[in-house]
Amino acid sequence: MCGIVGYVGHQNAAPILLEALHRLEYRGYDSAGVAVLRKSGLAVHKRRGKVHEMAARLPKRLSGNLGIGHTRWATHGEPSDANAHPHTDSSGRVAVVHNGIIENAHELRARLAADGVEFASETDTEVLAQLIARAGGASLTEAVRSALTMVTGTYGLAVVDAKHLNEIVVARNGSPVILGIGEREMFVASDAAALVRHTRQAVYLDDGEIATLEPRGYRVTTLDAAPASKRPTQLELADEAFGKGAHSHYMMKEIHEQPDAIRRTLSGRIDRRFATARLDGLELSPRELAQFRRIKILGCGSACISGLLGARLIERLTRVPADAESAAEFRYRNPVIEDDTLYIAVSQSGETFDTLAAVEEIKRKGGAVIGIVNVVGSSIARACGRGIYLHAGPEIAVVSTKTFMSTLVAFALFALHLGRMKDVSLAQGKRLIEALDALPERIAACIADSDHVTRLAAKYAQFTNAYFVGRNEGFALAQEGALKLKEVSYLHAEAYPASELKHGPLALVSPDTLTVAIVPADDLFEKNIGTIEEVRARRGPVLAIVHHHELPAAVDDIVVVPQLHELLDPLPMLIPLQLFAYHVAAARDCDIDQPRNLAKSVTVE
Ligand code: AGP
């Protein structure tokens, strides 16, 4: 949520900030702005809309070797020019970009207003700028520190002050801040994506830390002014991974990257001799792992849905009871944390606030938690301290596709690892490994065979309502299919367990409501056919995702996907669901990579 960036060094800051903002735009895109420090003072340019709209209106000669920038996802105050970041104090001397929420902003605003401060925006961030400008202290770092002692809430922020021509002060509490170390120059960003073009040397700030950046280096202290020693780490991401390649959207590129993403998640983790998985990152001995009697998976949105599928996979293979729950719901129900439960936090970005808060709640109560995370070094990965990295590569489209697939592969590896410590035989392990080996090719074949789905998307694009139905794993797939469709195409889509349709939702089935039925060739096949008959009897059109060409019930359309292994069969079924959402959105002329009102990583509650 929101991207922040900063530069101090010998180069002109504005082009570096703009390029970085384009890279961070997937984090929020309702408004954007930059502040560049020149000898004559701060030049602030910001406006509602996308980064390119703001960039098009920048003065041609915006020179200065220090600056900060922001791309916003609105929390306090609607998207507008005034609410766009950077925010300054009333004199225009101090500018701030911020990601997070200042919870006591109303109270602080009232206090400042009583002292005669006039506000130019409705944002919580402007409160920070006004506080910093009024705070005492000989240095900008001290002023920021003193202002932050008055603040409750979350922040990743960067501050510049026209009185301090050579420094940027940044701070972190709950929202990511990464320093990039260059040659006589320093960078800062909320996301490594904005740094990799310039440097591989990075320092991740921890909560409660403040850093002062100057061209010749950085200094990190805590909120209590104690020095903090930080060791730089190496960024592994390849710069090219952030391009769209030959595709017109990141979503399509990432759908096509799934075979490779699966290979990367599997890479180095299969132990063929013992037909098991090697997951050193778990840092749990067989004895420790065997002690867990239950598994609870937590995540938000698609990450939670992947957990539902992961739980089914683990439970079916290992017979260890497993379930999944929304991390946001979990953290607010004062959960009982049990010693014999292994908690698994799932997050692509590793920054989802509710998932991070759930991890902290589990740790605070003494529970054992591991992460399944894509972004290396992210907050959730670091808070868990152990787990499985997906290594799926950067996912830029707001909707998740390849990381969802890789998460399921990570769950399969985990289930194999745990199962082989229990009752799963060598032969069963080998069969699953063979299926995992074959998976990338099968997925590639499903993607290549997409013309039929493109035609179906054109046929149904003008519908206004859709049900997605299935049973067990099929219901989880239905949830993912419905979420994908509503996110990118804005078509109203709802997922229901097929068994529940007749308990109410059937009332809405009509010739204008599409039902997408997930019908695997499993034990529940006949039951799913029964549901299709019920929908057809109400003249509702049905699109079925199936394993067999022949269906005993008449449906309007079918998409056939290959069968592979009973535990992995849901994975190929994802492909038509993703492609259907993509092509419906394209037919409706939607902003596929940056859907309205959304952002890639949700770092606020
Ligand atoms: C997926 O398409 C969504 N954009 C969203 O539900 C996402 O999965 C959710 O916000 C969790 O994100 P995370 O994986 O980065 O934690």
Report on this model:
- The chain has 18 helices and 26 strands.
- By secondary structure, it is of the alpha/beta class.
- The strands form five sheets. Strands 3-2-4-1-10-9-11-14 form an eight-stranded antiparallel β-sheet. It has a six-stranded antiparallel β-sheet with strand order 5-6-7-8-12-13, covered by helices on one side. Strands 18-17-19-20-21 form a five-stranded parallel β-sheet, sandwiched between helices.
- Strand 15 and strand 16 form a beta hairpin.
- Helix 4 crosses helix 5, helix 7 runs antiparallel to helix 14 and helix 15 crosses helix 18.
- Bound molecules: 2-deoxy-2-amino glucitol-6-phosphate.
Task: Map the helices and strands.
Layout: E1 3-8, H1 13-24, E2 31-38, E3 41-48, H2 51-56, E4 66-72, E5 87-88, E6 94-99, H3 105-114, H4 124-134, H5 140-148, E7 155-161, E8 164-173, E9 178-181, E10 186-189, E11 201-204, E12 209-214, E13 217-222, E14 233-234, H6 250-256, H7 258-266, E15 270-271, E16 276-277, H8 286-290, E17 294-299, H9 302-318, E18 322-326, H10 327-331, E19 341-347, H11 353-364, E20 368-373, H12 379-384, E21 387-389, H13 402-421, H14 426-448, H15 451-460, E22 465-470, H16 473-489, E23 492-497, E24 513-519, H17 525-537, E25 542-546, E26 557-560, H18 570-587
Parallel strand pairs: 17-18, 17-19, 19-20, 20-21, 22-23, 22-24, 24-25, 25-26
Antiparallel strand pairs: 1-4, 1-10, 2-3, 2-4, 5-6, 6-7, 7-8, 8-12, 9-10, 9-11, 11-14, 12-13, 15-16
Bound molecules: 2-deoxy-2-amino glucitol-6-phosphate (AGP).
